[in-house]
Amino acid sequence: MDLTARVFIDTLRTFQSDEERTKISKYYKGGGKTEVIGVRMKNTFDTAARFAGMPLAEVEALLDSPYYEARMGAVSILDFKARRKRITDEERRALYDLYMERHDRIDNWDLVDRAAPRVVGWYLLDKPRAPLYELARSADIWERRTAITATFWFIRQGDIDDALHIAGLLLDDEEELIHKSVGTALREVGKVDQERLVRFLREQTALPRVTLRYATEKLPPELRAELLGAGDTARSPGKG
């Protein structure tokens, strides 16, 4: 099979649906002159799995595409490559570098979520985490979302320190899409160390309401009710 960006996009076109195009156009939050082919996510993922051996130069060509589904395919291919059992650290570095260098093309919440944990988080698992703190302070919402979403992989390995620190940096963020990611990270932290999660939540003077809801989702009902009640003055998205 010809593992090129052109063939990948031609393959996606065989699944095109006007109904799906309308649906995707409604939830896409990115900017720029993005075009939507109209392909169900399952078909995009399945196609990406078939093209998982695509050279990184062609993956970058997909990232350069104006089509949303092509960029979703690109980050999916990066994720599939990161999952390989015999991947070397050098190969993992190449995936990480491409993601970070072309973050300008990773411009929607689902593009970040599809690849950041394994492509960014897994690479940094045994390395300094300074790049994530730089992303957390970025003016770009998607870079900030990468910062917290990448920590999901650390949490999965029982490493929660950076997730809590980065969550703390992002508590004052003005974007609801960041509040949700922070809340999700905190919820996962609670699965590893409930005591530390509860202590973290109680130490905050104000939390975005959506963050608190997500963070307490898996806590015992009485404890969750207590924390939600204590957070009745929590900020709503977009307010100071």
UniProtKB/TrEMBL annotation:
Signal peptide boundaries: none
Matching CDD domains: AlkD_like
Domain of life per record: Bacteria
SUPFAM superfamilies referenced in this protein's UniProt entry, alphabetically: ARM repeat
Pfam families: DNA_alkylation (PF08713)
PANTHER family: ARMADILLO-TYPE FOLD, DNA ALKYLATION REPAIR PROTEIN
Protein name: DNA alkylation repair protein
Organism of this sequence: Streptomyces carpaticus
